[in-house]
Amino acid sequence: MSSSESGVHLEKFVIPLEEILSATQNFSKESWISNDGVVDVYKGQLQNHTVAIDLVVPYSYLRDRHFRNQLKIISRFHHQNIIPFIGYCHEGNKRITVSEYAVNGGLDDHLEDPDKRRLLTWADRLKICIGAARGLEYLHSGLGNDGIVIHRNMRSLYILLDDNLEAKISNFYYSMLVERNQPQAYVTSVINPYYEDPVYKESGIANTEADVYSFGLVLFEMVSGLPAYFKRRIDDNQEGILLNLVKIYYDDGLTKLIDPYIRDDINIHSFNAFTKIAYSCISMNLNDRPTMKTIIKRIEEAQNFQVHITLGINKDEKNDQRPAYHQIEFVDGNPQHLINLVRQYYENGPERLIDPDIKDQIDIRSFHTFKEIAYKCISFISSERPTMYTIINKMEHAIYFQELKM
After folding, report:
1. At 310, is the pLDDT very low, low, confident or very high (cuts 50, 70, 90)?
2. CA distance readout (Å), 381 to 264, 375, 376, 386
3. Do residues 295 and 212 touch, judged by C-beta distance below 8 A?
4. Is the separation of the CB atoms in 68 and 118 below 8 Å?
5. Predicted confidence band of residue 4 (pLDDT cuts 50, 70, 90)
6. Cβ distance 398 to 366 under 8 Å?
7. CA-CA distance, 93 to 56, in Å (whole number)?
8. Distance of alpha carbon 160 from alpha carbon 168, whole angstroms
9. Cα–Cα nearest to 154, from 139, 141, 143
10. Which PROSITE patterns match (predicted)?
């Protein structure tokens, strides 16, 4: 293999096979992590660092040109949402790529395993989606004069998660580096059929819009908890794969697709903003598909809806000391959740919500300052929700009033 192609020098990335064999204990079963049909992935230690070692399997349809292609591309990357490339080995029939080890593995594993999926809050999922979107946006626009990269195989399997659930895009064997002024190419589709853009499949034209389509399916996986290749039955209807369910229920009943593990956690405004951009990603009209920059912006809006509503409810919890998911029974009413009581009594009788344990010690000016900013946080009009700077300022005022009383 040439050590320098397209201006990229690869000598510094070469790792001797002997070191890799030592790191994996000769590719032992104990070091093996997974297989995706193309590579066996092993976990190993190289120079006191934990790494992931991808060994192309002998029966793989992956060719030497695909292997060289990945090296040329990934050696250029420098982005927090792209899995860091460490080195490679190509000795004899061994084709090996070494990258940073992602402690939390692939996103697909978290979707398939109920025990892992139940731990992913809606806030976690939004964070992961934003990270993955930023990684793709970098590929589509971040390489300067070198051009743009079309991933061509985007799916949850190739979104890895570090110890902070930061998303890292991986697997670039079939990716393409194309000129900025010619951001598409005729090439046979290789993607998993469940994530495959029908327009790409029919035309044979690979472009960034094909990545956007695949990412749209990943977004729906995240909100539904259903991998694109699994089937689910809703109500009494025939079970179907995720894409078909989205098309059936998008206009009427899409909330039925929400993962039960996050159903009580997700804010409806956040859900609507998220699914709207996800649905535009899978449009059959390429012109309707958003850019990754737009996708990031819309998911961040969904994140803001979720953060503000959670912040508002949590602050009212501090006043009342009863979790938002508990029902509270007042003398003159039926048991209700905290959010409903807040909206019912805010204008007339908000003092009734104060925790009895602090009722005698709370300063009335401190209380009103605190509950006013909390109420603004849960406004249905996003423009009325305060910034974090304003929230901090008001809470400091509440503290000031309370200290005057003491």
Report:
1. low
2. 21, 12, 9, 11
3. yes
4. no
5. very low
6. yes
7. 9
8. 5
9. 139
10. PROTEIN_KINASE_DOM (PS50011)
Which is nearest to 308 in space by CA: 381, 384, 392, 378?
378
Beta strand pairing status for 85-91 and 327-328?
unpaired
- pTM above the 0.90 mark? no
Among the listed ranges 1-10, 72-81, 122-131, 227-236, which one has the minimum average pLDDT value? 1-10
- pLDDT of 364-393, one tens digit each? 999 999 999 999 998 878 788 998 988 998
Amino acid identity, position 104: N
Q: Identify the DSSP state of 316.
A: H
CB atoms within 10 A of CB 383: 5
The owner of tokens 């977004």 is 219
Q: How far apart are CA 227 and CA 211, in angstroms?
A: 17
Segment 235-249 shows an average pLDDT of: 89
Helix axes 292-320, 122-141, angle to 10 degrees: 160
Q: How far is CA 158 from CA 173, 216, 294, 384, in A?
A: 11, 14, 22, 39
- Rounded-to-10 torsion of CA 216, 222, 225, 226: 20
Phi then psi dihedrals of residue 60, to 5 deg: -70, 150
Question: For residues 243 and 221, what is the distance between their CA atoms, to the nearest angstrom?
Answer: 10
DSSP letter at 121? -
Contact assessment for residue 181 and residue 250, using Cβ atoms and an 8 Å cutoff? no
Q: Are 173 and 38 in contact (CB under 8 A)?
A: yes
Other C-beta atoms closer than 10 Å to the C-beta of 65 total: 8
Q: Are 166 and 131 in contact (CB under 8 A)?
A: yes
Q: Please check whether residue 294 is in contact with residue 142, taking contact to mean a CB–CB distance below 8 angstroms.
A: no
Q: Position 325: which residue type?
A: Y
Residue 162 structure tokens: 């570090």
